[in-house]
Amino acid sequence: MLQALSNVLVTPAEMTAVDKDAARSGIDSFSLMRSAGTAVSAAALRLYPEALRFVVLCGPGNNGGDGYIAAAALADTGASVAVFALGDAAMLKGDAARARDAFALVPRPLDAYGPQSGDVVIDALFGAGLARDVPDEARTVIEQVNASGVPVLAVDLPSGIDGRTGEIRGLSFVAAHTVTFMAAKPGHLLMPGRARCGTLEIFDIGIPARLVADRAGDLHVNTPAMWEQHLGALDPATHKYKRGHLAVLCGGPVSTGAARLSAAAGLRAGAGLVTLASPAEALAVNAAHLTAVMLKEINNAAGLAAWLKDRRLNAFVLGPGFGVGKKARDFVLMLCGRALVLDADGISSFREGREQLFDRIAAEGGEVVMTPHEGEFARLFPDIAEDAALSKIEKAQAAARLSHAVIVYKGPDTVVAAPSGRAAVNVNAPPWLATAGSGDVLAGIIGAHLAQGMPAFQAAASAVWRHGEAGVVAGRTATAESLVESIAPLRGNA
Asked: Could you say which residues bind AMP here (predicted)?
């Protein structure tokens, strides 16, 4: 059943609604808690068979209830178990109280715990629903456990991480392993929370998949399931003139490398033809470096307008090394009715006058993809970037609605969002992708996918995935050039 939910992301609020729906449908809520706690105990025994003691830290809510069930199950196997509770365990109600009663021993106060060699900590304090800073009593224990180096197995989400945003609420555990239930939450994938979850494991605790799907929004993990129905457009056996003509617009003679990287990536990613559009003063330097990529002299808006009469040109990349200013703005506004990747300088050129860009995209109806990193996002969407209440996903969604474009909000937790609200979080990119020219390569891959006829959202999401896979292949010593050479054919069910 979890296969049907494998790429679904569910917010904490949506998961709360799912739990209520399950109870209304007649599913015993305590049986679900028992399944969750038992799954935690099974993971603990499998992962840490050498543990001298399992220390279960239980909070005042249902996450704590999962912890009590896990503690009882571990004790039944003969393992050494100690339970420490935040607050008065006698005040628990409902399923959490039943779970507490299933553990035969009286829990000790949380502040009585001190990490010992051989301990494995099971963090069942707060889980994914935390939306406030952790209390001081919990902070002290979290600090001690993190400093001690004893392994932490988190129940649902390491305590201190906001399940909606991935932000740290004052302080959080750094887990080696996290067990969650039914579906991943945004906090598992968004930084900095993602870096503190360790290995993520999702358990089916018996809630019907339809109940989860009914409450889940249009938010997913970026996997081939998001776009594999469009892979026919990327068939490498197709005739080159049916695989699209990608044009990459280049800047002046001292900043040509970025555009050539985009062009090379576009060709490698499957565009049938790729042309680098260069001003006259950069023709010689570009000609000296190009082979399969073609070269076209384009000096000004009039030259671009004349070239655009050739409708076989069906996708464009503008931004890498192009230069910030009026020329970039003029060119971009001419391309808003086409398939366009707007990157780097192309984005920064609209720091002032962004409304003109957004209005033109809306009026022309082109397949426009913008690929801002953190700084570029703040320049183009300052009001959204400054809203601390929004998660990275919500910021990308808001920017997509405002701009009428697909947004690729780059970073270690890249988010792809469409104006409709559909969004995907990417997880396959290795950290060494953060290298000079990597974004130029990504822009070229997106351009190639657009040139081959993929819709903008799917073209962007699949390109981000493909870029991550290329990074894995290129390895820790990857450069932008080796990244291009590592772009492999894109296949479904990867």
From this structure: 410-414, 439
From the list 285, 281, 245, 240, the residue with the least C-alpha distance to 263 is: 245
Task: Specify whether the CB–CB gap between 15 and 183 falls below 8 A.
Answer: yes
Q: Which residues are annotated as a binding site?
A: 62-66, 123, 127-133, 156, 159, 258, 321, 373, 410-414, 439-440
Residue pLDDT, tens place only, 181-192: 999 999 999 999
Binding residues for (6S)-NADPHX: 62-66, 127-133, 156, 258, 321, 373, 440
**Is the CB of residue 65 less than 8 Å from the CB of residue 92?**
yes
Q: 201-210, 238-247, 265-274: lowest mean pLDDT where?
A: 238-247
Checking phi first, is residue 210 left (phi over 0); if not, alpha (psi -120 to 50) or beta?
alpha
**Binding-site residues from annotation for K(+):** 63, 123, 159
* pLDDT-based confidence at residue 1 (cuts at 50, 70, 90): very low
Last residue of a domain, one of 157, 189, 217: 217
Per residue in 205-215, pLDDT tens?
Answer: 999 999 999 99
Q: Quick one: 39 and 124 in the same domain?
A: yes
Cα–Cα distances in angstroms (integers) from residue 432 to residues 145, 411, 472, in the given order: 29, 12, 9
323 and 195, same structural domain? no
- For residue 490, give the DSSP letter: P
Number of domains in the chain: 2
Annotated binding residues for AMP: 410-414, 439
> Is residue 491 included in any domain, yes or no?
no
Domain containing residue 191: 2-217
| Residues 202 and 318 grouped into a single domain | no
Phi, psi of 148 (to 5 degrees): -75, -25
User: 298 and 272 in one domain?
Assistant: yes
> pTM of this prediction?
0.95
Q: Do 212 and 231 fall into the same domain?
A: no
Query: Residue 104 corresponds to which tokens in the numbers above?
Result: 């035969």
Cα of first residue to Cα of last residue in the chain, in angstroms, is 19
Q: Where are the beta strands (DSSP E) in 361-414?
A: 368-370, 406-409
Q: Are 121 and 97 in contact (CB under 8 A)?
A: no
Q: What is the CATH number of the domain that holds 213?
A: 3.40.50.10260
Q: What is the pLDDT of residue 494?
A: 43
How many CA atoms lie less than 13 Å away from 414 in the CB half-sphere? 30
Q: With beta carbons less than 8 A apart as the criterion, state whether 393 and 218 touch.
A: no
Q: How does pLDDT run across 116-168, given as a tens digit for each residue?
A: 999 999 999 998 988 889 999 999 999 999 999 999 999 999 999 999 999 99
Q: What is the pLDDT of residues 277-320, one digit of tens each?
A: 999 999 999 999 999 999 999 999 999 999 999 989 999 999 99
Domain final position from 201, 217, 233: 217
Q: How far apart are CA 459 and CA 229, in angstroms?
A: 12
